[in-house]
């Protein structure tokens, strides 16, 4: 293959485990296996770590998205003389991204400094200070390979451009001027009940019946007003779907799970001295997570080879059992176990029907569980959405922007102190679950039209206005003045968009414990 660099042969040629793809799940498995004294070969066709969990320079992101928006032909191995005892099952990749829309409004400024941006392919993603992911980093020592900074605040947004602060303590509740005295008292009583239940106090305990009921019903039972319910359900418990509409809600949150989320949120606040809020974000972007686990794996003996596509799976012709992989360099590498990036799939052999043992096991090599789509937007501006805060999270609850909005929309603004952009600039990540590309674009455009000034001479601005009008929302009317450069409803001028990338991503749920179990089965 002409575009594959001439790699020297890999030695040894047999490993306990081969991992293809350096995404976060694969990197964690590689680190765990290496720590358990297993010999691991970790391959990636990309010239960088992280795969679909990477953070890329601004100039590289569009090409990466485009390259994974179609199914390329699998690379062919230069060797055509296959051993008689093996069947070759060729690899292919399935498209992951669609409806890609890149807009640039300040090309000279951004092109000169492209390498100073680290843009997350799968943003936004923040971490609770007390969540299991952080515990894993600390327990394994992987935290020594990366750093985090605190996300300063959390807000709930509406279609008028208002951002309401989410109170994270008793002091914050009393200081919050947006809450009335009655609302504050009800919220304090609710938190007191939750804290008593978590502490195991017998006289303050939530009944088992309530714990198994929908969380929204429990909040209604507690007499909490709509605004407070919205804060708890979508900004603290992080519910994705409209919890009050069972007809559209695909994931109804139970009270037990909601209470657990409140406990996690409470345990996260002030856990670390340098993090005052509940959330953390990695310096240099999400891609540092995969790299940290890869570094951990390398220290434990894992062998890494980047820029190395894998062309085919080696399968025993008689038993149908997995034996190894063929690299684009033509070399065959063998292992007992195999972990595949979920975007890879194995194509069926052409021509004659495969032997029965192989035919029975082929479906396992292409397992996937599609969970719909997620719409993503990345925006670059020179002005913060909140003049006095640089890094913060905004949640738009269902129905908060337009009546047909049935999912939450999340926005994360981060600044140059997290080493993701030029000084004086800001990166906004927007995401929302959706059924299709059109619905996803409407959700992202609704947020952009509410918060940002899109240059009027751009096609993207026309699309934003068109999508918002189709939604029948009040966003266009509320923000039309500021979209043309005028002041926003809060009396402040909206940030002007310099660059944006909008795209949809397929969601695929892969249980790696299940994956490991069937790979074990295929190996014996």
UniProtKB/TrEMBL annotation:
<dbReference type="GO" id="GO:0006886">
    <property type="term" value="P:intracellular protein transport"/>
</dbReference>
<dbReference type="GO" id="GO:0016192">
    <property type="term" value="P:vesicle-mediated transport"/>
</dbReference>
<dbReference type="GO" id="GO:0005829">
    <property type="term" value="C:cytosol"/>
</dbReference>
<keyword id="KW-0343">GTPase activation</keyword>
<comment type="function">
    <text>Substrate-binding subunit of the Rab geranylgeranyltransferase (GGTase) complex. Binds unprenylated Rab proteins.</text>
</comment>
<dbReference type="Pfam" id="PF00996">
    <property type="entry name" value="GDI"/>
</dbReference>
<feature type="region of interest" description="Disordered">
    <location>
        <begin position="463"/>
        <end position="492"/>
    </location>
</feature>
<dbReference type="GO" id="GO:0005634">
    <property type="term" value="C:nucleus"/>
</dbReference>
<dbReference type="GO" id="GO:0007264">
    <property type="term" value="P:small GTPase-mediated signal transduction"/>
</dbReference>
<comment type="similarity">
    <text>Belongs to the Rab GDI family.</text>
</comment>
<feature type="compositionally biased region" description="Polar residues">
    <location>
        <begin position="463"/>
        <end position="477"/>
    </location>
</feature>
<protein>
    <recommendedName>
        <fullName>Rab escort protein 1</fullName>
    </recommendedName>
</protein>
<dbReference type="GO" id="GO:0005968">
    <property type="term" value="C:Rab-protein geranylgeranyltransferase complex"/>
</dbReference>
<dbReference type="GO" id="GO:0005092">
    <property type="term" value="F:GDP-dissociation inhibitor activity"/>
</dbReference>
<dbReference type="InterPro" id="IPR001738">
    <property type="entry name" value="Rab_escort"/>
</dbReference>
<dbReference type="GO" id="GO:0005096">
    <property type="term" value="F:GTPase activator activity"/>
</dbReference>
<keyword id="KW-0963">Cytoplasm</keyword>
<dbReference type="InterPro" id="IPR036188">
    <property type="entry name" value="FAD/NAD-bd_sf"/>
</dbReference>
<dbReference type="InterPro" id="IPR018203">
    <property type="entry name" value="GDP_dissociation_inhibitor"/>
</dbReference>
């Amino acid at each position: 293959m002409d575009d594959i660099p001439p790699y020297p042969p890999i030695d040894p040629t047999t490993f306990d485990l081969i991992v293809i793809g350096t995404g976060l799940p694969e990197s964690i498995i590689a680190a765990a296996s290496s720590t358990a004294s297993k010999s691991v070969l970790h391959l990636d066709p990309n010239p960088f770590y992280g795969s679909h969990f990477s953070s890329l320079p601004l100039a590289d992101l569009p090409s990466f998205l485009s390259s994974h928006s179609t199914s390329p032909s699998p690379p062919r191995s230069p060797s055509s003389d296959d051993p008689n005892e093996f069947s070759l099952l060729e690899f292919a990749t399935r498209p992951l991204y669609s409806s890609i829309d890149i807009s640039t409004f300040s090309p000279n400024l951004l092109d000169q400094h492209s390498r100073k941006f680290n843009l997350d392919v799968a943003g936004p993603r923040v971490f609770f200070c007390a969540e299991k992911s952080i515990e894993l980093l600390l327990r394994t020592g992987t935290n020594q390979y990366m750093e985090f900074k605190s996300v300063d605040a959390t807000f709930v947004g509406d279609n008028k451009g208002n951002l309401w602060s989410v109170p994270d303590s008793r002091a914050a509740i009393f200081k919050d001027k947006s809450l009335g005295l009655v609302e504050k008292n009800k919220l304090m009583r609710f938190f007191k009940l939750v804290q008593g239940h978590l502490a195991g106090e017998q006289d303050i305990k939530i009944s088992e019946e309530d714990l198994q009921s929908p969380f929204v019903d429990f909040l209604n039972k507690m007499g909490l007003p709509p605004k407070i319910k919205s804060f708890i359900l979508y900004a603290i418990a992080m519910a994705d779907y409209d919890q009050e509409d069972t007809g559209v809600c695909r994931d109804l949150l139970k009270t037990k799970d909601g209470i657990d989320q409140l406990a996690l949120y409470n345990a996260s606040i002030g856990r670390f001295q340098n993090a005052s809020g509940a959330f953390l974000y990695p310096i240099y972007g999400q891609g540092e997570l995969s790299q940290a686990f890869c570094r951990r794996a390398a220290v434990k003996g894992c062998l890494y080879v980047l820029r190395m596509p894998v062309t085919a799976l080696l399968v025993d012709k008689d038993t149908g059992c997995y034996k190894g992989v063929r690299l684009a360099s033509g070399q065959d590498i063998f292992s007992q176990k195999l972990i595949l990036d979920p975007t890879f799939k194995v194509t069926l052999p052409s021509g004659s029907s495969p032997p029965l043992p192989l035919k029975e096991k082929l479906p396992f090599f292409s397992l996937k569980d599609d969970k719909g789509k997620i719409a993503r937007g990345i925006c670059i501006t020179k002005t913060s959405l909140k003049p006095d805060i640089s890094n913060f999270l905004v949640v738009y609850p269902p129905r908060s922007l337009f009546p047909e909005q049935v999912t939450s929309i999340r926005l994360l603004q981060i600044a140059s102190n997290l080493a993701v952009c030029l000084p004086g600039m800001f990166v906004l990540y927007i995401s929302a679950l959706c059924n299709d590309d059109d619905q996803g674009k409407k959700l992202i455009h609704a947020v952009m039209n509410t918060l940002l000034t899109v240059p009027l001479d751009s096609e993207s601005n026309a699309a934003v206005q068109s999508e918002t009008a189709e939604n029948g929302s009040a966003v266009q009317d509320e923000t039309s003045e500021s979209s043309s450069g005028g002041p926003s409803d809060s009396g402040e001028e909206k940030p002007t968009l310099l660059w944006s990338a909008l795209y949809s991503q397929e969601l695929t749920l892969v249980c790696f414990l299940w994956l490991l179990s069937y790979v074990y089965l295929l190996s014996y």
